[in-house]
Amino acid sequence: MTAAGTSGAGAGSGSAINRSAIWTLIITGAALFMTSLDNLVVGVALPSIQADFGGTIESLEWTVNAYTLTFAVLLITGAALGDRFGRRRMFAIGVAVFTTASAAAALAPSLDALIAARAVQGAGAAIVTPLTLTLVSGAFPPEKRGAALGIWGGISGLGVALGPLFGGAVVEGISWNWIFWLNVPVGLALIPLALKRLPESTGPDKALDLRGLALVGTGLFGLTFGIIRGETLGWTSATVMTSLIMGVALITAFVAWQLRAREPMLPMRFFRSRGFSATNGLSFAMFFGTFGAIFLLSQFFQVAQGLGPLEAGIRTLPWTLMPMFVAPLAGYLSDRVGTRPLIFTGLVLQAGGLAWITAVSSPSTPFGDFIVPFMMAGTGMALVFPTAAAAVVASVRDTETGKASGATNAIREIGGVMGVAVLSSVFAANGGFGSPQAFTDGVVAAMPIAVGVLAIGAVLALFIPGKSKVESDAAKTDKRPGDADGPARPGADHRNGPLPIGRPEPQVLAASKS
Asked: The whole model's pTM is what?
């Protein structure tokens, strides 16, 4: 029992195990919804924040960018800390950091203080988010994991999509401060629940890869900072070019170090798996297209059609509510038909929905013309969120889902940052906020970029192994003789075939029998 708990394979049978798994899903789901919501919730509050604090548009944007920057940079670090010091412990610490920063943001006396609090919020979210996937995948047995990850994906997609609606309702109904105050009671309730109800588990490595943490943290900071500043300073400016070049160089150094580190935080052998590589590529593409589109369309109804924040948010409900209904079904189906057909269909639906929206968008377009394409885009998003997570989890050993989760979350978050930056740049070059038609012109010029990237993601989905080949594909990520990161996994030489994914290793079985 001890060995299984240490490895994170806490799934099993019996009513006690089932209750533990349900508690895990509830606690991690609530935390995931908070952190996902805060990705976009502040955007609609910027006019109100400016009315209180003043400041330029550029300085106001940092209330969004500060969160995004620390969140993207520290995701891999958060997963590594959970593997080393205990996932339950670090999850509770992450929630505490996020909750404290939320209170500080609500009480901020100045714009600078608000930006600093948002940065700390992002750090807390970076610890929490990858651990939610690791904890959920470890709490359920393989045959039930897809359904659980379907609910997990629905919560994540719903949090992202409801950000503009929730923010608009709170700002219009109370004040912008309450966007942050509402996190506090939820966080205070989650901390003791997590410590009491979540099982503790760790990753296989006992040492913390400090060099890897430094390289990936500073490298991701350079990339993310350069992408965020590219729209304002220009992509060829010295600041942006230097930041991007240094980011690429440091990420390259990180990869080189991981290839020879004994206990790497992101084993490069993961990329031997076609499923792991393809899923990370399409996750980048999906977040690029989805975040970029939501960023522009959440403002379209306000700027181009003259609606208030709450009315604008309500009109996106055909899109934003779909994950609540479709994602759990997608997770259930993934256990039966595999992830590839669902992910491919989801990305095609998203690309088609956004192309349709682009074709009909104008300042005078009636709301009814948006309902069907919004539902297509929302259904597509719901099909991809949980099934992509399931594909990543299935592509590595159970003990290494923390590392895989951190990498996937970082990659897709960078995709979201780049999507907002690139689509905003295309928007600014072709339109603006001067009139409803100017805003529409910018949106119509930028949206095809999102459509094209989502279409590329659909092509990548075809490279995910079919359901019958998942185990053999995942076996490619096993340690082999000569690999830098420790001894080979028992049976990993494949002379007797790979060990089934999700089944305890021989030493775990022996320990449980004794």
From this structure: 0.72
